[in-house]
Amino acid sequence: TQLLEQSPQFLSIQEGENLTVYCNSSSVFSSLQWYRQEPGEGPVLLVTVVTGGEVKKLKRLTFQFGDARKDSSLHITAAQPGDTGLYLCAAPAMDTGRRALTFGSGTRLQVQP
Amino acid sequence: DAEITQSPRHKITETGRQVTLACHQTWNHNNMFWYRQDLGHGLRLIHYSYGVQDTNKGEVSDGYSVSRSNTEDLPLTLESAASSQTSVYFCASSETNYGYTFGSGTRLTVV
User: Is B38 helix (H, G, I), strand (E, B) or coil?
Assistant: First the structure.
């Protein structure tokens, strides 16, 4: 089973700060997704990246897929309390024929006002 | 609007009892999935289905079963609940691998 390792596990910052979280693996992925999960709710899809080196922006969030398609990063500019949540990366799992996703254990972000 | 709903939201059961968690989606998605979420483990795949009458075991399928008799529903059954199955369970659906829609989860406590 390929592993997705996310770092850091926890991050507590002040409103207005910038931050980057990482998702790394030794495996090559055909695509990678980022989700955000708020307490008591299911994860919500933020973005899917498919091409090595791809960069996608979603307002203050910037997502990058590594050139070798083994890693990804999520950068948040000027974090706000509404960004608080658990950020999960996910990729198609080889042992399911790439038809189900495997998830990292997540980065828990808290943005203090 | 299309949606995916899980019920119940919270359940307490005793060790050894059979429990069924419901998942219903109106997206008309062929693919449906069950995950469990525990601290330190993230989301782990229990079972998945690519269509009616199709079911497949995931990473942590022991003690769980599913059936798919129609497109909308994928109920998850714990045959004989154990304390190790105390967790939050999420159902998801998708048409492709490019994005899942998750339900709000069922928090199950086995005492």
Answer: strand
Is any Cβ of chain B less than 8 angstroms from the Cβ of A59? no
Angle, vertex CA A54, rays to CA A50 and CA A58, nearest 5: 95
Asked if the Cβ–Cβ distance from B35 to A103 is below 8 Å, we say yes
Instruction: Quickly tell me which residue has 């299309």 as its tokens.
Output: B2
The H helix count followed by the E strand count for chain B is 0, 11
Band of pLDDT at residue A52, cut at 50, 70 and 90: very high
Instruction: Return the SS3 of B53.
Output: coil
Task: Tell me which chain A residue has its CA closest to the CA of residue B41.
Answer: A105
The pLDDT of residue A97 is 73
User: What is the nearest CA distance from B102 to chain A, expressed in angstroms?
Assistant: 5
Question: Is B22 a residue whose pLDDT tops 80?
Answer: yes
